[in-house]
Amino acid sequence: MRSAAAGISTRQVGKRGPKVTVSKRSSQPAVPQRAANTVRATGVLLALVFGAIAVVNGLASLIPGLGPVSSAAARFAPTIAPMATVVGAIVLGFGIVWLRRGRRWTGAAMTGFGVVSTIANLAVVIVLLVAITSAGGSVNLFTATFGLSAIDSASPDRKEVYDKSSSGDDLSVSIYEPERAKGSAPTIMYVHGGGWIAGDPNAASSELRELADHGYLVVSVEYELATLDNATWQSAPSQVACAASWIQTHADTIGADTDRLAFWGESSGSNMVANTAGAAAQGDAESSCGGKVPVPAAVIADYPAFDVTGLYENAPTGPGAGSGTRLFATSYTGGTPKEYPDRYSVADSVTHLKAPAPPMLMMTAMRDDVITPTDQLSWAESARSRGVDVKTVKVPLANHAYTQKAKNSIGSQGHLSIAEAYLSEQLR
């Protein structure tokens, strides 16, 4: 028996049993609908969050006066600006779709975030690309956007002990060999940074492997790190000099062409390779293991700590400024410039650089809040006045250690390609 009410049926159970009413309507369609609503809400929320992050990154990269936000953006912009541009474009697309569906507030917010983040981050990318290409470098923008990888994911082909630390521990060199080397290969001695108190010779192993893949024999040096109780202003540079001597002594064994030898350092490592190169050119380099220290054909310095006195006296202050610069200087030298003026004089690179010091490429991050860019550029002018051939490359919108956030980033590709172009001229 069918009820007159729509969708209701009545069934008799037995002859005199009770009537059972069963609804034909189902609540099942409501479950997928709620799930779809949840997905849409989550998508909108994610679009707004990522859009806001991309906006902050783009604007803070372009505007230097936003304290810690600008500092952080400058540190990561050379890595994430291409991805942030893509994110901005995607958010913009979602915003337009949402506006067409009549969702005015969320649509307008997503559209606004999308427009601003796309334009701002694209401007960052363009500024960096112009600076890099003007300096002789190149960037694969697709790889910089979608091909990022860990900066330390490679491993050296082998390690060799070259000396002992002051406490008797082994010091080794990590060797990255070119695949198809015919005879001896142009050689790079690489010295890591870390304010003399930290760092690892293989922290940028992915970049060192790429240099080896491009035909260079790369020898990355481990040296003694400073502590508050162990100033290494004498020992660490002499160990770097020893590593250079070791390369020359073992050139035939490792396949090094010492006539095409370059020293490459970053941050505090730049200080030691510059000082070693200058002292070797003057004939007074001190090696912890003895032997003659070779004079390189070129020196490359990334965001260098050339002015140790300035590192202490001109330590950046205020919100977002790099911390620890005075700790770096005092740990390395054992005290302040007032306490140990002679030690600071020895550590300052300008002391060692005068003709006939080898030519140098210096790459300066213009938003560096660890080593003041004006100190770096002033040092370059002082070196030039002493007859040293110094080429400076100013990397805009970049902070200290901008190269080491990810392999294949604009920063990583940029400094590698600029340096390789320079080496191709100097190591001919």
UniProtKB/TrEMBL annotation:
Concerning SUPFAM superfamilies, the annotation shows: alpha/beta-Hydrolases (SSF53474)
Pfam families, sorted: BD-FAE
Q: Does the keyword ATP-binding apply?
A: no
InterPro entries from the UniProt entry = AB_hydrolase_fold, BD-FAE-like_dom, GDXG_lipolytic_enzyme, Lipase_GDXG_HIS_AS
Q: Where is this region: Disordered?
A: 1-34
According to the record, the segments passing through the membrane are: 44-67, 79-99, 111-132
Which UniProt keywords are present, listed alphabetically?
Hydrolase, Membrane, Transmembrane, Transmembrane helix
Give the signal peptide as a residue range, or say none if absent.
Answer: none
In terms of superkingdom, the source organism counts as: Bacteria
User: What PROSITE patterns does this protein map onto?
Assistant: LIPASE_GDXG_HIS
Domain BD-FAE-like: from-to ranges: 175-373
Polar residues: bias regions: 23-34
Extract the GO molecular function terms from the UniProt entry.
Answer: hydrolase activity
Read off the PANTHER family from this record.
AB HYDROLASE SUPERFAMILY PROTEIN C4A8.06C
Can you tell me which family this protein belongs to? Belongs to the 'GDXG' lipolytic enzyme family.
The protein here is known as Acetyl esterase/lipase
Q: Which organism is it from?
A: Brevibacterium iodinum ATCC 49514
